[in-house]
Amino acid sequence: DAKTTQPPSMDCAEGRAANLPCNHSTISGNEYVYWYRQIHSQGPQYIIHGLKNNETNEMASLIITEDRKSSTLILPHATLRDTAVYYCIVWSGNTGKLIFGQGTTLQVKP
Amino acid sequence: DTEVTQTPKHLVMGMTNKKSLKCEQHMGHRAMYWYKQKAKKPPELMFVYSYEKLSINESVPSRFSPECPNSSLLNLHLHALQPEDSALYLCASSQGSGRNTGELFFGEGSRLTVL
Question: What is the pLDDT of residue B1?
Answer without folding.
Answer: 62
